[in-house]
Fold these 4 entries.
Entry 1:
Amino acid sequence: MASDTAAPTPRPPLERLRQGARWGLNHALPKWVIARAARAGDLHARLVVASRTSSDVPLDLFEQIRVAGPLHRSTYSFVTASHPTVREVLANPDMRAGVDFGSASGPLGRLGRWSAATAPIGPLTPPSLLVTEPPDHTRMRKLVTRVFTVKAVQGLRERTEQIADELLDSLAARARADGSSTDPVDLVPAYCALLPVTVIAEILGVPEVDRDKVLEFGSGAAPSLDLGLSWPEFRSVEDALSRFEGWLTAHLELKRRVPGDDLLSKLVAARDDDGVALTDSELRATAGLVLAAGFETTVNLLSNGIALLHDNPDQLALLRREPGRWPAAVEEVLRLDPPVLLTGRTAVRDTEVSGVRVPRGGVVTALLAGANRDPDVFADPGTFDVSRSNANEHLSFSGGRHFCLGAALARMEGEVGLRRLFDRYPDLRLQPGARRRDTRILRGFETLPATLS
């Protein structure tokens, strides 16, 4: 999962101005405001700064925010680490997903709308499902939901098991070729990334020759969710998004000419109840999001799960004695070390959350990872316990109308991927050199070296 380090594509002067404005509005200006607030002691600002300067989750700040109240008002927004309040925010019809300067009034709003006109389609750029609201969200989501139902995903289990076994066979063959099974292998690129990208690529009809490209695009675009990117980081991310959009446009055109029995072919041909198809931009945004989200977060789930199970051998021993607990173990991994740490909402009208008034335009940060450790919901929340009866009450898949449509697929891949790995290599040992990803909203491992026996 190495970062996309290709040199950014040169842009015309006017587009460079637009790109600079996008960076200034969405990264440079917020970063300056947040740093100033953090120096003044603001809890939310301190949380953002801490997440940028360390790969460790700032659990102490989660707790301070929770103690400050169910919905804490910071200098520039609201923030919550309370499980019931996060759930309320995610379900609130008066809240829309994301934060968008283009919807503001005055000079900043005009500048935001002007600069966004040529932005590459990304996970937080309309018409992405992550930031689209009803009725468009309902219409677009309905067209992709069928393939991700629990029943449909269970039909993919056998193929997922086959893919996992093939990847584990390749690890064994590599060890034999090297002449030793004690040489470390990096589990992230060799297993955690390849399992979900192979599964989602088959679902979407992406040929095997293009899967390395998809991994590269996903890795390069992953920081697009983060706040406060430097100018070089921002340019690199937008370049990755632009190249991904170019590849995806060509791939979708191929599906128009030569359709197959895959989700992208079905999306190209899909019509809603009124006979209306997705627009070109909706099709690219939806297909891109399903493809990227179909493996990026699952890479994190697998790597986080491997680390937790390795570091808690008593829990791994319990799973070996009682393999029926594997689904619950995946829920506990999702609860304790979620692949996505937080999400944001903006009030579209004056509303109330947990008794606190949130004015129109007010931004609320919902700390999913904080809610997952709420001691009023989860006993001894910092302990990894695969026998926890209510682990599935975590909010790692968000909630409300933006609940992750790939949740069933991620759960199945997590169970298959983790169980198959530890069954094949019961003496697996992680080695020094593990490193977390640089992303601040997506949480997982960049490298995870391990010896297999």
Note: The chain has one domain: 13-451.
Entry 2:
Amino acid sequence: MTGVRGLPIDYTNLGYDALRESMLAIARETLPEWTDHSENDLGVLLIELFAYASDITLYYQTRIAAQLFPATSDEPESLVQLLRLLGYELRPAPPATVELAVAVDAGQALPLTVPAGTAFQTQTATGDRLQFETVRDTTITTAALGPVLEGNLRWFLPVTAVEGRTVTGELAGVSDGSPNQLYPLGEGPVIAGSITVTVTGPGGSAVWHEVRTLATATPQELCFATQRAADGRVTLLFGDGVNGAIPPRGGVSLDQAEILATYRAGGGPAGNVAPGTAFDSPISALRQVVAPAGGSGGAVAESVESARDLAPRLFRAQERAVTADDHVELALRTPGVGKARAVALNWNDVLLYVAPSGRVEQPSELLRRDLLAAFEQSRMVTSALRVLGPEPADIYFRATVRAQPYFLRDDVRAVVTAAAAELLAFDRVDFGEPLYLSRLYDALQSLPQVASLTVTQFSRTPDGGVDADGVIDLEPFELARPGYPETIQLVIEGGVAR
């Protein structure tokens, strides 16, 4: 495209210098009698002022335009609003689940019921207190107890508990009767799916339930949706009388329509407690409480970068689980799912392999239930979905490492072990993903403590060696993990002996 008298216009030159030069070029073309283009000239001063103002204006226009597309938006709140237009809300941090083993005296009168919502607490290595609450009533009977063990105790397993604490009856606000009312919750992070609302008013109280979107709600439906900000804050959104009911406005001050919220706060990887962690029990009859297998499923909240990548794919799926990729992407939307792989056995039989966040182990009963419930509205009526756990693939690694002469051997051993394990960290591997010896060499030889190394074992068996092609192939249902400490064996040469 051309401008004045055929001069080309470059719309990518948006800076001050380019704008100034472009205006001076137009001046030379249209005003040949103007020959003094030095900085002392008043005309040049005016051009520089225009270039300065245009530079600022174009900067903000470019910034605004960039916020209109998920791929270019770099403001977290802008991206959250864009994703909300696609019906996508950021996933909060999922809570961890534990299967507790509880011990009672051999002479304890039974049956004994552990009510739903019973709070068990434990202390982390950092000194923080974590609370886990039972998800259902659990009755301990004589037939369900194990034999009498040390301390005259009998053990019962499992009592399922989920990390988090319940906030009951928080006053979120007072309804003014207007459409699209918004009320932020006071505590957080809020666990997904845990919010219930009670609206009290002149006509009594009513329980309102959470829905994924108000777009499909009827005018009389007592429901609300949640909006999650980039920093994790949760806001309740009520209807407008067309999509979802409006909380009524109270009369006199004594009859205000109060909006009371009950929800669970918590979530995150801190709940993935170590195997054998002991818990404090609020029930005196339970003498000891431990989590034999530890906790699993806790993970960090979804980042805006992850949402930027996943939201458009889910929008294309339109909440329909048809292809294998659809099943994987919808599964990853379920809190607590870290990895997923879908395999179609035939036209209506789908196997969904799932690993909980952060660990290569079987998904808990609760996670399986949540997944099946999430797919109930997405899968085809004639299809059968089975949720399975991963098959762990332990990788054995042995190497002779030549250390740099100025590093301690123990330090070299620790660094190399950590680097080898990092290649098989949960976030670095996926179902059925092959493992390459070349990547192991690249990671270890780049360490400043390592002068050279020779890998003598890279296999799936304790007595294996190194395959000729240096590749370990996995089945679609297998997920690699570093294995146990003895799977990594190192011989350190050189360096400094302690």
Note: Residues 166-265 form one domain.
Entry 3:
Amino acid sequence: MPRKAKELSAVEVKRLEHSGKGGNQTVAVGGVDGLLLQMTPVNGRSWLLRCKIGDKRRHIGLGGYPDVTLAQARDRARDAREMIWQGIDPVEHRKANRAALVTAQRRGLSFDDAMERYLEGKLQEFDNDKHRKQWRATLDKYAIPTLGKMLVADIDVSDIKRTLEPVWATKTETASRLRGRIEAVMAWATVAGHRSGDNPARWKGNLDAILPKPSKLAKVVHHPALRMDEAASWFSDVQGREGFATRALEFMAMVAARSGEVRGAVWSEMDLDKAVWTIPSERMKARAEHRVPLTKETVDLLKALDRLAGSEFVFPAPRGGELSDAALSACMKRIHAAKPDKYLDRQSGRPAVPHGLRSTFRDWVAERTEYPRDMAEIALAHTVGSEVERAYRRGDMVEKRRAMMAAWGHFLRGTQDE
């Protein structure tokens, strides 16, 4: 018959010490078969249960001493032996419980916390601070009031519908972007293990069954553009005005570039000898470098500019920084105010805006010239062709586009027949 260990008291356990020789040492404390106090050479102490589980002998940790008292260690040892008797491995049972706890904690993430954790990485993709603010602002304004405190694991299609419906018909474009951003947050929560199942914010095969299609609710509102027949008159009015913002607007019209590309232009991007403006990829909407051929008149405009000391910008603001988008818009408004019956969009009747100049250029190419469509699209820095086509077409037609931009310049000045 196996010899039973003497049942030590709490005081006797407290007095136990390592012998000072060798590594870890164990002492049977009795009360439960196999219950040991393990002592390290540096006087660390913990409880172990020596037992047999199936065909294997195991030492199961029961916690550290004195955080776990002798009485508590005996209770834990009895519970473990009862589980073994029932055919349950206490170690595997403990692991499963810990995994369930971690899963429950992950699934307990609220939408506002999920949004913050998702945005930590997502917002780094944007170079433009305006885009970063727009992403957050849309979610803060429209999603957080209804979804913010809900657990991502509990959000379903009805919750998304309830969030989108107030703005779906009245602010359709904003609502459509909001849906996509909610979908992105929910997708992150699923991949990160905080929820499971289908994404309730998915459009196709999901929300499209209960919400009207955005295209059926609101037509795209285009930027008001100059009528082609008024382009020369408008351009003459621009040339008759002073200021960096006005010169930026004149330059923008001549090269058919975007406002941000012109306002952010720095002298290091300009090669006046080769008459080429190279815009780096990080400043382009399509994130690809874009070369703009400069005509003689465009180069002359640049050479005539007074360079502002301490500023790298071609068209600086009064204090040397980058011009604001509002500065160019203000120029357009002043020109229209001087002739309120002119420079109106043909379809909407609204006053033309800077971005609309690109539409006027595109209409001119299509209706008044024989230049290829792709050449015009490349000039506007639009993505042309499929991914495979772009992989094989490495050129950007910069020299061919030079002739097209020269012809456009003649059209703006009203000298195309000279």
Note: The mean pLDDT is 88.
Entry 4:
Amino acid sequence: MNLLENIREGLRSIASNRLRTILTSLIIAIGITSLVGILTAIEGIQSSVDSSFAGLGANTFSIVARQDAFRRGGRVQKQDEPIDYFDAVNFKRRFPYGATIAVSTVVSGAAQAKFGSKKTNPNVQLIGGDDAYLNVKGFTIQSGRNFTQNDLTHALNVAIIGIEVANTLFEKKLNPLNQVIRVSGTQYKIIGVLDKKGGFSGGGDDRMILIPLDNARALAGTQKLSFDITTSVPTVSDQDEAVDEARGVMRLVRHDQLGQLDSFEIERADDLAKETANITGYLRIGGFGIGFITLLGASIALLNIMLVSVTERTREIGIRKSLGATPKRIREQFLIEAIVICILGGIGGILLGLGVGNLIAGVISQGKGSFIVPWGWMGLGIVVCVTVGLFAGIYPAVRASKLDPIDALRYE
């Protein structure tokens, strides 16, 4: 009996026990689904995060004040003093790089917008910004226009709203442009609607209302605001030098003494992306560990089923041996059966894992991420399937090959 005939015999044996083959393959499929599904979901989430950072731009950095206590050099430092309006304006005036600089502030992170009887949930971000804010932050205007210098100079009551706010208030039945909404007790005329951004932020950018910076200062009244400065340099290669220059300018603006720690923090877009990629790497390791444990349970179940198969086919093994089948061919037959069952289950598990993983990633990223096909993880899934087949089939195959043909023929 040659190898090719052995393969055919193994396939015939699998086909003759369809129900057992299907149930066994399902065990493997569930294990592979958990492995490929988790890793696909992580890849999809990472893709969404990368898209979000790409929209912001790799050549941007932000200067912000730390709002919480932080630890440096083994000592807990108090939070930074907020960056006030004059700090931001002075930095923008002194920075020599000719970069695009946007100054913004969050007036409220839980505002509510109203239009007639319609109103949003109290989770709208009310932000004051200048005419560079949308460009630097990676927003796109769907309809309407950006702020003009006249809007900013005279602090007019005009607003640019996110797509989610527009859909909630106007339900796609009415053109939002030139309509008047009420936010924080003040009426604003809508001059622009933003395209959907969504992404890893959970859709918070789509629940935004942007008003002129000086209007936001007036609206805040006695509330102490902290201003963020976001800078976009012409090219990525300029960023290192620009960040160093920005740190020096900001220390002068903030009157930080020589030897004193910075009273602010510079956040680079590419640093955030790298940090997120590191976290995703740990998630991949955890996901692989969970999938591996599931597959280990599936391989034990397959081992048990293959042992049952050997017992059921003891007389068949005796006949084969009496006709000249060597122990090697008997081992091959059972190993081939185990591997084929695993591959069938693996293919089904990979397809299910792709669907489940992309569904999870799509829900988390709110449909912002693209459909992910992780070829590397799919290849790993097939390799794992073959390995599981070998692991689960080797002991039953060896046991079958060692049966005495006389005793096997007597088995009932």
Note: The chain has a mean pLDDT of 80.
